Each structure stands twice: as structure tokens, then as C-alpha cells.
Amino acid sequence: MAKIRVTLVKSKIGSTKRQKRTLQALGLRKINSIVEHEATPQILGMVKKVSHLITVKEV
Length: 59
Fold this sequence. Notes:
The protein is an alpha+beta fold. It has helices at 17-26, 41-49, and strands spanning 3-8, 34-38, 54-58.
């Protein structure tokens, strides 16, 4: 399974409550925080929902 590196690049202020909870579930707390996850269908779905706030790189 591939790994992805997710970085929060925009503020979550002004986002919906659902998007904020998705970022929290991904482990992204502050701007420029970076987390690595396995590229499972569940994680990729979460990434797609907040794609306008994050950047994703394949590791």
C-alpha cells in the first residue's frame, strides 16, 4: 500500500464543522503540520473532502 504525506496549507477558519472534524481525524492541527498515512480508500475520501485546504504528496 502506498503512503501519502498530507500538509495543511490553508487555515481551517471559515470551514464547515464537518471539514474541521475531517482535518482533526487526519491529524492536522496547525498550518504547515504534516502527517503520513497509508493511501486507503477511507483516507483518500477524507483527503478529497478537504483538498482545497491541503497538499498531498506520494511518499
